[in-house]
């Protein structure tokens, strides 16, 4: 009889139950031998060593340890690392690829709630919801009712600038098709023909900033993208523009953004910051035209099940010799989030 593949969990207990609920565990155990009562956040110690010695598949997730040379030395039978979360950039060492081990990520599944969050923030940002809500809450009975004016608000007929045709950026582009908006795209890796297929106008980053009523950031964090929205480019934005960042905080110069928003000329909605988290009392928290959320756009609560569904399906594809949908090649690592 052929030996069934052996899989091992390496994911934090706080995430495990939401990512792998009981029915998904049942489905997984039909594919591989796995102990759902054991999940590792460290590969040190005899229990982890015994598990690694037998493992053909590592099912990793948030809070799991990095798969490095020491882990590989303890896991001679390892053939696949399937990550039930987003990026694997910091999760796997180059030696994993040197060993010919297949790496997969559920980043496509995690991109869905980020894109949904982004679209929601574009709609609310275009309505000036956060600024007007704060004015409403602070209003006096005998004071001006200045929260009511909707002049110049609303997403309809806006120009939306999308920075980066990443997996999340492309989902945002797809969602924007439901709205009567002009969409600009800055991505130096997207050809004119591909931009046409996406239904967007390709432009330079400076032009995107000049024309964008709303600008949403979806580029990877690379040396060349650090502070791509700096003081000069923020100054190009039209009066009343809204900047949304659900990518990485380092893409925007925090000091320059704080100064620009403090004038009231532009607004910002930030799910990521640099540094992250911002220190207590940072000026961005107090500005009425800025909303800072604690990196919550990705899968949360009920949304986390989608990651487990993707990972279990990937295990099935791997076991049956079918190409993986979330396979991450080493050449992709520099360009992912």
TrEMBL record:
Lineage: Bacteria, Bacillati, Actinomycetota, Actinomycetes, Streptosporangiales
Domain (D-isomer specific 2-hydroxyacid dehydrogenase catalytic): residue spans on this chain: 47-321
NAD in keyword set: yes
Keywords from the named record: NAD, Oxidoreductase
Entry annotated with the keyword NAD: yes
Residues annotated as domain D-isomer specific 2-hydroxyacid dehydrogenase NAD-binding: 122-297
Name the UniProt record assigns to this protein: Hydroxyacid dehydrogenase
Alphabetized Gene3D superfamilies for the sequence: NAD(P)-binding Rossmann-like Domain
Organism: Nonomuraea bangladeshensis
Protein family per UniProt: Belongs to the D-isomer specific 2-hydroxyacid dehydrogenase family.
